[in-house]
Automatic annotation (TrEMBL):
Pfam families: Cyanate_lyase
Keyword Lyase: yes
Top-level taxon: Eukaryota
Gene behind this protein: LOC113736209
Domain Cyanate lyase C-terminal span(s) in chain numbering: 68-138
Matches recorded under InterPro entries: Cyanase (IPR008076), Cyanate_lyase_C (IPR003712), Cyanate_lyase_C_sf (IPR036581), Lambda_DNA-bd_dom_sf (IPR010982)
GO MF annotation terms: cyanate hydratase activity; DNA binding
Source organism: Coffea arabica (Arabian coffee)
Functional note: Catalyzes the reaction of cyanate with bicarbonate to produce ammonia and carbon dioxide.
Keywords, comma-separated and alphabetical: Lyase
Official protein name in the record: Cyanate hydratase isoform X2
Length: 152
């Protein structure tokens, strides 16, 4: 969560610099040779600023602090794209295979591995290995707080 919070904070700082400049994504795109969507992604920390583009961005937004430029050059956090895209389907399959429940993030192992695909290109393998926890039906007769209150 700290990484996500930091990303949001940096994105807010970047948005403030852009807003103060009065420029649109389109104007910055024209001045840097990027597309307007890629510029928006840069300012949301969803894309990485490449070294060759730094001088153009500095010329377009001279008030952009060096520390923010350095942050923009770091690879962004993008795994959430795959998780958001496939998450609901994965959850539905878990429900089909196991019943109504969740994969625990407490009794959980995760690994990231690099392999060669059949085409010889590098591929990323993310493994989520979590304990299945079934949801329980919430019957008031099983609520200890109610049972304790009734006993008084």
């Amino acid at each position: 969560m700290a990484e996500q919070s930091k990303k949001l904070s940096i994105a807010a700082e970047l948005q403030a610099v852009k807003h103060k400049s009065g420029k649109t994504y389109g104007q910055i795109a024209e001045e840097t040779g990027l597309t307007n969507v890629y510029v928006a992604q840069l300012f949301k920390r969803q894309a990485q600023l490449k070294p060759d583009t730094v001088p153009k961005l500095r010329a377009s937004l001279p008030e952009l602090p060096e520390e923010l430029i350095q942050e923009m050059m770091r690879p962004p956090l993008r795994l959430n794209e795959a998780v958001m895209h496939f998450g609901e389907s994965i959850k539905e399959i878990i429900n089909e295979e196991f019943g109504d429940g969740i994969m625990s993030a407490i009794d959980f192992y995760c690994s990231v591995d690099k392999i060669k695909g059949v085409d010889g290109k590098e591929r990323v393998v993310v493994t989520f290995d979590g304990k299945y926890l079934p949801h329980s039906e919430q019957k008031s007769e099983h609520m200890m707080s109610r049972l304790t209150l009734q006993g008084n």
